[in-house]
Amino acid sequence: MKSFFAIAAGLLAAGSSVLAAPTTGSEGFINKYALPANHSLETKEYIITWWRNDTDHRKIENYLDNLSLKSGDVLKAESTPGVNPQWAVVEMCDDHAKIFKELAEINVVEEKADVKSFAQQQGAPWGLQRVSSAAGATGSPQGQDFVYSFDDSALGAGVDIYVIDTGVRTTHAVFTGRATQGFTATGSFVDGDGHGTHVAGTAGGAKFGVAQGANIIEVKVLGDDGSGASSDTIKGMDWVIANHNKRKTQPGFVGSIMSMSWGLQGTANSVDEIISGASEAGIHVSVAAGNDGIDACGSTPAHLGGKNSNVVTVGSINIDNEISSFSNIGQCVDIYAPGEQILSSWSTGDAVINFLSGTSMACPHVTGVMATLMTQDVAGLGQNPAALKAKLLATARQGDVKGNTGGSANLLLSNGVDGAVKRLTKNYVLPDHSGLNGSPAARAAAAVMVKDITLDKRFQLHSREAKLRF
User: Fold this and answer.
1) Which residue intervals define the domain Peptidase S8/S53 in the entry (predicted)?
2) Comparing 33 with 392, which gets the higher pLDDT?
3) What CATH architecture is 116-412?
4) Which of 19, 20, 116, 386 has the greatest count of CB atoms below 10 A from its CB?
5) What is the pLDDT of residue 23?
């Protein structure tokens, strides 16, 4: 353990003076000191994490007091009691951050990073047939004449899917009352972007989704422009871990999945630590590989996938099983799933749907299959991320992916069914068009429907295309 004397020596070398002598047992603790006269006045938000399973350290307010910082001014957020690892977001200068980095009980100190969601353009529900048929899907990916086959009508019932994204329009018809508002880092639960609602629909929406019996829980950490901060994702995951710990003692609970279709331009150790903590708490994690057409091992959270992790990183394929040109690849990618021209729910109305492409769209396909597998073996898979990942990869179709995998396994998502066991006829209740969805906005959305796509008349198509975002 680094001692106070080592820290003090570093401070003195920097031109500071120690104001308080160390006391017995003060190893690793910050003693009061004066910053160098020429230290920077610029402050930034830093994320601090303690080592996992370290529950004996002092409260963050204790550290701040000894740095002569007022916690009410600089402490922006901190972990919920019982969440592991413990963390805090502190606004401070670089010199303060250096002191934290010297402490033996501190694992990570890094600046808050920007987070953006993945998405490209266009989509259709061919993906449901792809994951449930060895023959795959043929024809136009813009059609709706595909068959979803499954051998367990529970379809993820009892599983909590936390969609950590731009928000979810929980009132959308496809969620059939199963979607709830959970947490928001922005002060609003409105999905002004649409990305999160689309992802949620693929994971668990009726007609368009895989796990049509699962609970969809909105965790809004990204803004209406599809971007946000790493500290907000940590706040959202912290809430998920705490809620999971409450839920797992309740009757009928099966398990929890964090579905995260976003990524950073680079890595963030603090975010990685919270994800690892969630996995240790028994929460399953599915993440998008990224849309840069490069090695997925270069960014958080995609780089957490691979052989030595419980996190599942998902790449994208098209209807011909070809790796999407935009999809990241490499050894951190565990599995590939439908990600081009995916049709799902949209946030501008309770019966509006939209096309999108991206590894963001592939990720919730995997989330949905994970949920359905969990309901088939609750005792063995419900809260065992390592076992579920092994089951998911063993169930996948091998050797069907076409293109350069960059060293990843050649595995294509499967729900374990081959053929048409049952036609998809789940009961999804849609609002009458003369009511809420008879609004001018809904009628305008219906007016842009593309003539060569046969759509269920109870839905309105928002657009045939969506802008590429990263």
Assistant:
1) 156-399
2) 392
3) 3-Layer(aba) Sandwich (3.40)
4) 116
5) 37
Listed in sequence order, the residues at least 6 apart from 301 whose beta carbon sits closer than 8 Å to its beta carbon are 260, 263, 264, 271, 272, 275, 285, 287, 311, 313
Confidence tier at 102 by pLDDT (50, 70, 90):
confident
Rounded mean pLDDT of 302-306? 97
Among 360, 408, 414, 463, the one annotated catalytic: 360
Q: Catalytic annotation on 39?
A: no
Q: Is the pLDDT of residue 265 over 80?
A: yes
- Correct CATH for 4-112 of 2.30.280, 3.30.70, 3.40.50, 3.40.630: 3.30.70
Residues of the chain with CATH 3.30.70: 4-112
Active-site entry in 165, 193, 232, 295: 165
When pLDDT is cut at 50, 70 and 90, the band that residue 434 belongs to is very low
Residue 58: closest CA among 86, 32, 80? 86
Residue 448 has pLDDT above 70, yes or no: no
Query: Positive or negative, the Cα torsion across 183, 184, 188, 191?
Result: negative
* Residue found under tokens 């006269």: 37
Which of 31-67 are b and which e, b meaning 16 or more Cβ less than 10 Å from the residue's Cβ?
bebebeeeeeeeeebbbbbbeeeeeebeebeebbebb
Identify the active-site residue in 195, 198, 365, 462.
Answer: 195
Active site annotation includes 360:
yes
